[in-house]
Amino acid sequence: MKKSFFALILTFFSTFLCQSQDDGWTLSTGKVEQYTGVVVANGRIGILPEDKPFEVRSVILNNVYEKESPLGVSKIILGMNFGNLEMEIDGEKITENNISDWVQTLNMKEASFTTSFNFKDKAKVTYTIYALRNVQYSSYIDFKVDAKKDIQIKVTGKILTPEVFQDPTSTFRVLKDLETTMPILQTFAKSQYGKHIVATSATFIWHDINSVREHERPELKHNKVSEYDNRLSFERKVRKGQQSEFAWTAAETSTQDFADPQTESERFVIFNLLTPRKDLLGEHKKLWEELWEGDIVIEGDLQSQLDVRLALYHLYAFSRGDSNLSIAPMGLSSQNYNGHIFWDTELWMFPPLLVLNQDISRSLVNYRSDRLGKAKQKAVNFGYKGAMFPWESDDTGEEATPSWALTGTFEHHITADVAIAFWNYYRVTKNKEWLVERGYPMLKEIADYWVSRVSKNADGSYSIKNVVGANEFAANVDDNAFTNGSAITALNYAVLAAKEVDETPNPAWNEVASKIVILKFPDGTTKENQSYEGEIIKQADVNLLSYPLDIITERENILKDLKYYESKLSPEGPAMGQSIFAILYARLGDSKEAYRLFKRSYEPNKRAPFGALAESATSENPYFATGAGGMLQVVLFGFGGLHITENGIEQKNEILPKEWKSLTLKGIGPEKKTYVIK
Fold this sequence. Notes:
Radius of gyration: 26 Å
Pfam family, one: Glyco_hydro_65N
CATH class of the domain at 35-290: Mainly Beta
InterPro entries: 6-hairpin_glycosidase_sf, 6hp_glycosidase-like_sf, GH65_N, Glyco_hydro_65_M, Glyco_hydro_65_N
GO biological process, one term: carbohydrate metabolic process
Protein name: Glycoside hydrolase family 65 protein
Oligomer: single chain
Keywords: Hydrolase
CATH topology of the domain at 35-290: Beta-galactosidase, Chain A, domain 5
C-alpha cells in the first residue's frame, strides 16, 4: 500500500530535522521509517548500531580476512557481535514496541553514539557506544538508567558468534589477583575456513567499583545458550529518583595481530575494567580532539557543515596513524567490496587526509610500502619489471580481485596512483628519512614498471595497451587517458625523487614520460581511449588529467573537456566524477558551477536519517568513504584553493560559494596553518 501524503511529509521532515543540529557537531534522529546507521569506529574495529534498543548490526575487524568461499577470494571478517544486549525492567523485556521518546545522536566531536528512550512510566534509559581510540581493539558501552519508580532491572550482555565460525569455545571465568576479581565472559573460535582464531572477551563495569565492597556488587550470572551464544547478566534494584550507571566493555582480537588473541582480548577488557571511566573516556576524547585539529568550518550553511564534518569524521574513524593500514571503499561499515583496498585510497581519501593529518596519511602510504615485495613478484609474474600493484589488495599484498573481474588483471593505473600518493606525501611532509627508506625505493620500482609496460610506436611515441581505465565501462582498451596520464606523472615524480636523494635517475624514465601519447579528438577535446566514440562513462577519467595530475592546464582545454564529459557521466556511477568537475570549476573561478556539482557529488547519495553516503544515487551500500574523500577534496582543493606543490601546500585562487559566509581550513599541513576564505 502506498504511503499517505501526510506520512511522506512526516518522513521528509523527520529526516530533515535530524540533520539540522545547530552546533555543527551532532546529528540526531527520532524514529524514522527509512534507517541507515552510522558507524562508530577507531581504525581497528567498526560497530554499526541499529534502530532498535541495545542492538548492533555488525562488528567489522580491519585487515582481518578469510576466504569468501572455498573457490573465492579473501573477504574482511564479520566479527563476533559483542554489542547486542538485553534489558528487562520488572520482568518485562525492553523492545521497540514498549518504549517512547526514542532519540539517537552521533556526536562527531567525541566519536560517540547515544541512544535514549523512556520505558513506559518507569524509567529513562540512555546508553552511549564508543569504539575506544585509546584502546584500539575494544569498545565501551556506557549505560544510565533513571528510575521514575522503584524498579528491578536485569541486564544481559552477549557475545554472539556468526554461525560460519568453526569450533567456538564459550566460557565465563572470574580471574583473581590478590584482592582484585575480574569476571570475564569469553568466546574464541576459528574463522570460517580456519585461517584465523578470533577471540572476544567482555564484562560489566560498575563505576563505583573502588568504593563498593565485593559482597555489595551485583551478582553475575552466566548463561551459555550455545557455544555461539554466550551470555552474562546481573540484576539490581533502583529506587525512584535514583540512577543506575554501569558499562559493558568488550575487546576482539585475532591471530592477524596477536599470537595469542585469547589472552590478549582478556587483557584489554581488564584494562578497561580497572581504569576509571573518567580517565578511559577522557583519553578517547582527547585523541579525537587532536584529530579535529584538522577541521573544516563552514559558516552560513549548516547543512553543508554537517555533511562535510560527517565525511571527515568517517575518514578519521576508519583510519589511524599507528597502524600502517589503509582504508577500504566502505571503511569499517560493511563487508562490501570484500573490505579490499583500491585506488579509492590513493586518489580519493588520501589527499584530504594528507593535508589535514600527516600521521594517518603516512599509515596509508606505508601500507603499500609494506607490500612492495608482493608487487615486485606480480610484475615478474606478468613479464614486467619493477613493481605492479594489485587492483584489489588485502593483508597479503597479492591480487585479491575475483578472477572473473577484468579490473584485477587489467586495471593497471593503480600502480601509478600509489606513486602519486608517495611523492605527494613527501612534498607535504619533506620527511627525507622516509623518502630514503620507503619513498624513493617505491617510486623507482614503479617507474621501472612503466618503462617495461609501454609499447613503442613507429613514430617514437609510447602507448599503453590493453587496460581497464578509471572508466571501467571500457575494458581492454589502448591509450586510456587517465592510465597514460598517471604513468607520465609517476615517471616524472621518480625523476624528482631520485634527485632529492642524490641518485641518478634512469634516463628511460624521462624519455618514456615525455613521449607517452595523450589522444585528442579533431576539435582538441581529450579522447578517453583510442576507440572511444562518445559512450557513457562510469566516472571521471579524462578530467583527472586536469586535476589532480596537472597535465592539461590551459583554461580552454580544461573547459572543453569539462563540457564534453559531464554529459557522458553515468547517473549510476560513483559520485566522485562530480567532485572532480566541481574542483575544476572552482579553480577556474566559477563558484556557481562548482557549488552545483559539489552538491551533486553527494546529496543524491545521502541516506536517512543521518546522511550516510552510498556509492551512487541508486545504491544502498553506505558508508562510501571514497565519496567522502571526493567531496572533501572539493572543499579543500577547490573552494579552499589548496595546491600540493614542490614547495609543499600552497593556496592559489580560493573562491567562496555565495551560499557560504566563510570557509575556514584548520590544521593544514605539518605547520597546522589556518586558512580563512571570506
